[in-house]
Amino acid sequence: MVLVKVLSYNIRSMRDDTDALARVIQACEPDLVLIQEAPRFFRWRKKLARLASAAGLVVLTGGGTAAGPAILCNLRVTVERTEDVLLPLTPGRHRRGFATAVVRIGGARLGVLSCHLSLQKDERYDQAGMLLDRLAGMGVEHAVAGGDLNDRPTGPAFSRVADSLQDCWATSPTGGEVTWTRTEPHRRIDAIFATKGIEVRGCGVPLDLPGITETDLRAATDHLPVLATLDIPVS
I need a labelling partner for 212 at 20 to 30 A (CA). Which of 55, 110, 226, 235 fits? Predict the structure, then answer.
């Protein structure tokens, strides 16, 4: 088994305190960061690279080319392949996409997907199915997916994903549960999921890690991060 730390974080296009954002990410010591609402427009690559560097990471894939989702990683991660996927566009609605990659970490081979699902119920449910189809088509035995689902655990889109994958917080809750909003958190709409063969050691909002303060969590963005500690079987 290989221990891997995965962080999922909606960063609201880096419109808040980016120094606080970098401090939160760095304090979590993640191997992989599944970003939502990465910068998508003017000089978005430079902005995302600057955040990654400040947190001691590198950009793996995504950003503007995935309509917002992105993946960052540390130097433990060897990249096998990446693919940014744009989902079908409903006229008048926001473009959505997936940032995906297949990586190797210390002998484990892992599919990775970052998502930000629609605000519209029917479209969100369809996109949850596309997420599962994308993971199934990656050609890997083990995979993680994470992001802002814009749905509660009892909602149809969230449930559709959780019926096929482990909802990591429900499997092994550690830290806080609710992720939105930062000032008055009352909903869990951000989550990390894992395929069945992965052992979840713990998952939740990192509230008591050294280096993470409530001030930084409130200043960084309008969501709270989700951190999962996972044991991935060696391929």
Answer: 110
